[in-house]
Amino acid sequence: MRISYLRTFITIAETGGFMAAANILNRTPSAISLQMKALEDAFGTELFDRTKRPPILNRQGRAILGAVQDIVGEYDKLEQSIATKDFRGEFVLGAMPTTLTGIVPKSLAACQRRFPNLLVRLVDDHSAGLLARLKNRQIDAAIIITPLEVEPTIRWRPIAREPFIVIAPMDAKATKDSSLLQEYPYIRFNNNAWTGKLIDEQLKKRSLNVHMTMELENLQAVATMVYNGLGVSIIPQNCVDSGFPLPLKQIPFGNPPIVRTIGLAELSNNPKEQITQGVYEELVAAALSR
């Protein structure tokens, strides 16, 4: 019996079908079916109700699912028992675009010293997209803001709090956040992102009517537009300096200012748990050393 067959069995249970598991595992449905037939032969019993479309776990399949997850988890821990310093392989880290010019490069510099044989591949996306990639096992961990819903298969740990600020050109006369937002054109951060939705909710809660003239997906681009006098905006203040901040007027958004919390998300049965722990520790250290 191969451990990969057990992983496939778990993926089918999590995704609900052979086809969905095949897409995630980059296998053909027929290959998945052959693996599961071999697994059933090894156990000496059928594990799926194939009268259903798509096939689903039957009573025996559901009964052994927990034990299979435990076996795979223990196997992964055994692999991880090798000294992490000698770990050779790839670690795929998802990160929000706002973190790529601050906390990510600072923490990865420390990670390279800690894990000299580790190859880190970065994937940038908004929090919702990164969470979806994590669930589909396309990435090993993700730096995201507090999830809208806490799911039992996801472990999320906080790294740092980032207050929101109103940014404006240096020559703007207003000194209150409400005045800046109502007197100048408003550049909105893409409201499809969780951060954008949080900002829009606060504007509505405070009954602040803004005149939106532009919408952008990249916070660095937003800051550049403001610097060039095209309006004002609301952005999170990075927990780690980016190294090349633009000269902008900065006023807290709200009293007290609203904040977002960024953290590291991983699957609860993460096979690279020790590496992820090391990455998390370096992210926290980078935030504290601001």
From TrEMBL:
Keywords: DNA-binding, Transcription, Transcription regulation. This is LysR family transcriptional regulator. InterPro entries: HTH-type_LysR_regulators, LysR_HTH_N, LysR_subst-bd, WH-like_DNA-bd_sf, WH_DNA-bd_sf. GO terms for cellular component: cytosol. Pfam families: HTH_1, LysR_substrate. The keyword Transcription regulation applies. SUPFAM superfamilies: Periplasmic binding protein-like II, Winged helix' DNA-binding domain. Belongs to the LysR transcriptional regulatory family.
